[in-house]
Amino acid sequence: MSSEIKVWIIAEKPQGxxxxxxxxxxxxxxxxxxxxxxxxxxEQAVRLGAGKVYWLGEAGPGMMWEDYTDTILSLxxxxxxxxxxxxxxxxxxxxxxxxxxxxxxxxxxDVMELTWEVDRFKATRRVYGGSAVxxxxxxxxxxxxxxxxxxxTPLPEEAGRTGTIIxxxxxxxxIRIKLxxxxxxxxxxxxLPAAKRIVCVGRGLARQEDLGLVEELARLLEAxxxxxxxxxxxxxxxxxxxxxxxSGAMVKPDLYLALGVSGQIQHMVxxxxxxxxxxxxxxxxxxxxxxxDYGIVGDLKKIVPALIARFKAE
Amino acid sequence: MVINNIAENTxxxxxxxxxxxxxxxxxxxxxxxxxxxxxxxxxxxxxxxxKAEWVIGQYDLNAVEAAMQIYEAVGGKVTALSVGDxxxxxxxxxxxxxxxxxxxxxxxxxxxxxGADTNLTARALAxxxxxxxxxxxxxxxxxxxxxxxxxxxxxxxxxxxPTLNAVSRIVAENGKLIVERSxxxxxxVLEVSLPAVISVTTDINQPRIASMKDILAxxxxxxxQWSLADVGLNDANRRTEILYTLAPEQAERKRIILEGESExxxxxxxxxxxxxx
Lengths: 314, 277
Ligand SMILES: Cc1cc2nc3c(=O)[nH]c(=O)nc-3n(C[C@H](O)[C@H](O)[C@H](O)COP(=O)(O)OP(=O)(O)OC[C@H]3O[C@@H](n4cnc5c(N)ncnc54)[C@H](O)[C@@H]3O)c2cc1C
Ligand SMILES: Nc1ncnc2c1ncn2[C@@H]1O[C@H](COP(=O)(O)O)[C@@H](O)[C@H]1O
Description:
The structure holds 2 protein chains of 2 kinds. Chain A is of the alpha/beta class. Chain A folds into 2 domains: about 160 residues, Rossmann fold; about 120 residues, Rossmann fold (3-Layer(aba) Sandwich), CATH 3.40.50.1220. Chain A has a 7-stranded parallel β-sheet with strand order 5-9-4-1-2-3-10. Chain A has a 5-stranded parallel β-sheet with strand order 13-12-14-15-16. Chain A has a 3-stranded antiparallel β-sheet with strand order 6-7-8, with no helix packed on it. The longest helix of chain A is centred in the N-terminal third of the chain and has 14 residues. The radius of gyration of chain A is 23 Å and the shape is elongated. Chain A starts with 6 loop residues before the first strand and ends with a helix. The relative contact order of chain A is 0.11. The model of chain A has no long low-confidence stretch (mean pLDDT about 95). Chain B has a single domain, classed as 3-Layer(aba) Sandwich (Rossmann fold), CATH 3.40.50.620. Chain B has a 9-stranded mixed β-sheet with strand order 11-10-9-12-8-1-6-7-13, with helices on both faces. A two-stranded antiparallel ribbon of chain B has the order 2-5. In chain B, strands 3-4 form a two-stranded antiparallel sheet. The radius of gyration of chain B is 22 Å and the shape is globular. The N terminus of chain B is likely disordered. The structure holds flavin-adenine dinucleotide and adenosine monophosphate.
């Protein structure tokens, strides 16, 4: 560990702040957290291990979180930290991209693993839909990287930790987008990575009404329901929190049962850590059969009821 | 007006505005990528894309469709734009994008753009867009191969115009846009002045399927090809260096595949599942 390297972090939510501070502490004692929100969040960042907090204040009504981009940019330009970690939410990605473009650099996105070697950060990420893992490094001054949830484990909060909190004046954005309205979105909380059994549906499920049948099977198996991306985005038959894959959840259950899932790499990369993979698909040539332990070539509408009957009879 | 509902738009438009005031020059950005199904893994886990067929990024079709729907509502022009290496010369891919509606295609082709990072891609797009002229640039949610979800954002910032990601609905109104932005746990409604660059979600629309007629017509549309020098970009340096690209290690699977839906086969499958839980 070195106290020389300066690492900065920013996240929308406290959980993100906690994870990124922990990640930054792998490289340095010199961790600065940028906090937008109530002062209590700045104090919490200190308890989580940030030696310094730039407290940017609380976004007023009609303001976007991203309106702080110019404020953050001027801080970055003054202090040139070696690394700026941004929590990979949609807002975080917008912030990271705008900062990078202003600094003439690029963004290392959705980093899975980060290492420091000699004088540069190296980051690995998935490319080609998950067909490959790539390591790259930024060649410019400040490296900007986005990191999603679950990469770093937060340190426990400790009241004894000390740090300075510096209030930063707001820099009026050069470009402003007017916020007209905010609507809450229904979200479901589901912990797919922790599931022991998963029943996953794909587009082979022709009608939304048939979901009931699959749910019954999942209940009998004490399994979580999951889906492919088009079922959640596009068809909107299931919440986004339930889709598995490179841009969704990464799971590792004992049993992953795929119903009407073709088995494209973007999906399978999220499921291929499962202990047993089983699949039902009408197409004998579906790629999923090459990646499954057990498969049955057939119509899920016939096979699911037959399985339900058998599990019920137990 | 709501771009997702063309009939309604046209009605509202007629009442309030003349076409001339709202016409928009729209650029839709798309990337072509090697089909990941054709990626070959060598014994040392390095990968080869030499045999891969190239395709238009799945999520960039939503960008082209979003541009077309705005055009159909308010008039103007849709131009498709892509930057990359010689793979872009593929005539099937040129027709592929033009058959989905854009009136004209611009390509910046340069070996220096082969495997470019998001910074270089955005700078090349910015240089081309300035030369073409635009009111609005639409990008996809992410490229199919890298899925950095960055190029649109960086492009907007380089052009020094408002830029947004995650846009799931667009309403073009009096020379500005009202957009919805779908975030993790909220939806924002925003007013965006033009010119602007927006990146759209994959569920903003259903991309249209081109008919035979569209494909034939596509062959007659103008295509302009530039080099980096043509668009005045002299610095083609990368901001990142790739250290390695390797296929992940794969778990061996049993691959016991049963066929048929007889009671016997179903019993067997049930037994296999039971043992797995
Ligand atoms: C950048 C990028 C990121 C992506 N990220 C993800 C991701 O994270 N997760 C994800 O899931 N996808 C992702 N995708 C999409 C992915 O490429 C595939 O398009 C998607 O996974 C396919 O979903 P599917 O298997 O449900 O549908 P399809 O590919 O359409 O497959 C449906 C299957 O059902 C079978 N079938 C049809 N009828 C029946 C029946 N009656 N009984 C049984 N089987 C039947 C068919 O034979 C077929 O194999 C991504 C794509 C891109 C470009
Ligand atoms: N080489 C390119 N040419 C044109 N548009 C691109 C290119 N690369 C990316 N884009 C656009 O930028 C979006 C985001 O790309 P990425 O940041 O690579 O995920 C894509 O969906 C495209 O619309």
